[in-house]
Design a protein that fits this description.
Blueprint lengths: L1 E5 L3 H12 L5 E5 L3 H12 L9 E5 L9 E4 L15 H18 L4 E4 L4 H12 L6 E3 L3 H15 L6 E2 L2 E2 L7 E2 L5 E2 L2 E2 L8 H22 L4 H15 L4 E3 L2 E4 L4 E4 L2 E4 L2 E5 L6 H18 L4
Parallel strand pairs: 1-2, 1-4, 2-3, 4-5, 5-6
Antiparallel strand pairs: 7-10, 8-9, 10-11, 12-15, 13-14, 15-16
The structure holds lactic acid.
Length: 300
């Protein structure tokens, strides 16, 4: 398995390192507009190989990604704490379009994994310019928001986050939709939990929406939750586990890239599963889709 990274900034490097710790690839290639950055991160990961699963850790430019099974794209301008992700649209759209076209030329059989923000729009753009089938253009989407949702629910109710089935769907952004009606803990409705109160759920949902901005304001950018979330998707692909994850893919029903619970395996992402929603949740999802579409309409 060859996984290449276009972008070796904080998130790209953390995803590459986490993937190496999990033994997800036999070959990892780091690239970056600043070649010394890619080289430094590759050497830093390589130098720990005496105590991690073995892999060839390389650095180079986009031609060195040739023949990749998965290409992870984190390149682009990151946002500031008080900036909505969509502000990055004009800054990143031209860059991403060019990188995607070139990457796919070198790796026509790859799966593209998008992390660059605004994520939903960049995933839509990558789908449009790559010529790849929708299942092979995957955005991290609300997998990250879902991780935060489950982590905060676990903290609130004193349970193992890995036992919680709860999804955030829609936009990886201000209109994200934490689904409340279907939260279960190993199949048991959350409402059955001792100490359950709906106000606590509302607080958790509010926390999830501001989570990224909070971390950016404190430390300049989010790194570890994105890396853990990204590697959950990479692991499902590499191990062909057909895990259900709310990744962002082009959805022909909605006519745009949007995050919904989807089977993820070596084939990429699909089919999207029909998660039960209340009328209120469905309306919120429709609003989120409309928001993504409005941003996609601004693509150059
Ligand atoms: C975040 C960035 C990755 O949500 O969009 O932390």
């Amino acid at each position: 398995m060859k996984i290449s990274f276009i972008g070796s900034g904080k998130v790209g490097a953390a995803v590459a390192y986490t993937a190496s710790l999990k033994g997800l690839a036999q070959e990892i290639v780091l690239t970056d507009a600043f070649s010394d950055k890619a080289r430094g991160e590759a050497l830093d990961i390589l130098q720990g190989q005496a105590f991690t699963p073995q892999a060839q850790i390389k650095y180079g430019d986009i031609k060195d990604t040739a023949g990749s099974d998965i290409i992870v794209i984190t390149a682009g301008i990151p946002r500031k704490a008080d900036e909505p992700r969509v502000l990055l649209l004009s800054r990143n759209a031209g860059l991403i379009a060019g990188l995607v076209k070139e990457a796919v030329l070198y790796s026509p059989d790859c799966i593209l994994f998008m992390i660059t923000n605004p994520l939903d729009v960049m995933t839509q753009l990558a789908y449009q310019v790559s010529g790849l089938s929708a299942n092979r253009v995957i955005g991290m989407g609300t997998v990250l928001d879902t991780a935060r949702y489950r982590s905060y629910l676990a903290e609130q109710f004193g349970i193992d986050a890995r036992d919680i089935d709860a999804y955030v769907v829609g936009e990886h952004g201000e209109t994200m939709v934490p689904l409340v009606s279907q939260i279960t803990i190993k199949g048991i409705p959350l409402t059955e939990l001792p100490g359950y109160e709906s106000a606590a759920i509302d607080r958790v949902c509010d926390e999830v929406r501001i989570a990224s901005g909070q971390v950016i304001a404190l430390k300049g950018g989010t790194v570890f939750a994105p890396a853990a979330s990204a590697c959950a998707v990479l692991e499902a692909i590499v191990k062909d586990s057909n895990q259900i994850l709310p990744v962002c893919t082009y959805n022909s029903e909605y006519g745009v890239a949007v995050s919904l619970p989807t089977l993820v395996g070596r084939h990429g992402a699909g089919p999207v599963l029909n998660v039960p929603m209340t009328d209120c949740e469905k309306a919120a999802l429709e609003k989120s889709v409309a928001n993504i579409k409005a941003y996609v309409a601004e693509l150059p």
